[in-house]
């Protein structure tokens, strides 16, 4: 029986994205009841552990600290780990006999202008050493695997793709639940939905420009709901709304509770995710599971997620996005067909499958 550690410190500092990946992966691994001994490492500031059945241990070293790799190595030495999984890219200098990292995307290399200076320095300053040091790498998509090989010269046989899953709660809620959460969130009867962090990489400025074009073509187009959390350069987004005179046509819904997300998806006519780059794109998968067709960029991992469901657009072409929105709003036959296809497609993605791929990678190293 091997001793495997998983670094979950980031879950105390962030929600969504990598934190969601960590929580879902740990829960799915617990459900598999592996024969190995697991310890889940959390921030000492966290009030509750990520794991239910696995052992839990607090650590003092904060994520993304300038001496993190050294400090974490010292803290982990006493645990005698056979393998450590670092889901947030960067492993310690030596925390176990073997190291696995998850690389979700290479945004910081492909599009450095879309990151803060601190984030760019942290990832760019560590990623080359991290991929060399790791004994194996998990990637969320084939697109990320290809980037690792092409940009960082990582051998393909050192990388395992394990697509992410969709939580079981992401289904279309009952009519009563939809009505309850519609009132609680003050949602209109019909709307276009964006869900994610409000930051440049998500191409929200392009979405706003496309929405302005859509209104000129369809004056009665439903509102655009921007839901999620504020990120870097949020003020630019607000200024663009003012410049375009969109006023109350754009509705903000921030920090929505997890329990309300299925209703938020299901009540929308369409989800739009026009990102310049995504490591995976969970909102597209979750929307499909709730019966909402997606409009996504034709770049990076997003085509892998949606397959032939919904519409794919060039994120640099705002008119292309406006046409896609118009089609989704006006073609009811298409909409019904894509809703059914999306539910079927989403059923192919499970966290159990993600966890099994990770566990297989662990055991190959061990």
Question: What do you see in this structure?
Answer:
There is one protein chain. The chain is of the alpha/beta class and 366 residues long. The strands form two sheets. It has a seven-stranded parallel beta sheet, sandwiched between helices. The mean pLDDT is 95. The chain folds into two domains: 3-165 and 350-365, Glycogen Phosphorylase B (Rossmann fold, 3-Layer(aba) Sandwich), CATH 3.40.50.2000; 175-346, 3-Layer(aba) Sandwich (Rossmann fold), CATH 3.40.50.2000. Helix 7 (204-217) links the parallel strand 8 (192-198) and strand 9. It has helices spanning 18-32, 68-76, 107-110, 117-133, 142-152, 175-184, 204-217, 234-243, 261-267, 282-289, 302-306, 318-330, 332-346, 351-365, and strands spanning 3-7, 37-43, 55-59, 83-86, 98-103, 136-139, 159-161, 192-198, 224-230, 250-254, 270-273, 294-297, 311-313. The protein has 14 helices and 13 strands.
Give the topology, please.
Blueprint: E1 3-7, H1 18-32, E2 37-43, E3 55-59, H2 68-76, E4 83-86, E5 98-103, H3 107-110, H4 117-133, E6 136-139, H5 142-152, E7 159-161, H6 175-184, E8 192-198, H7 204-217, E9 224-230, H8 234-243, E10 250-254, H9 261-267, E11 270-273, H10 282-289, E12 294-297, H11 302-306, E13 311-313, H12 318-330, H13 332-346, H14 351-365
Helix pairs in contact: 1-14, 6-9, 7-12, 10-13
Morphology: globular
Determine the oligomeric state from the structure.
single chain
Query: Over all CA atoms, what is the radius of gyration?
Result: 21 Å
Assign the CATH class of the largest domain: Alpha Beta
Uncertain segments are none
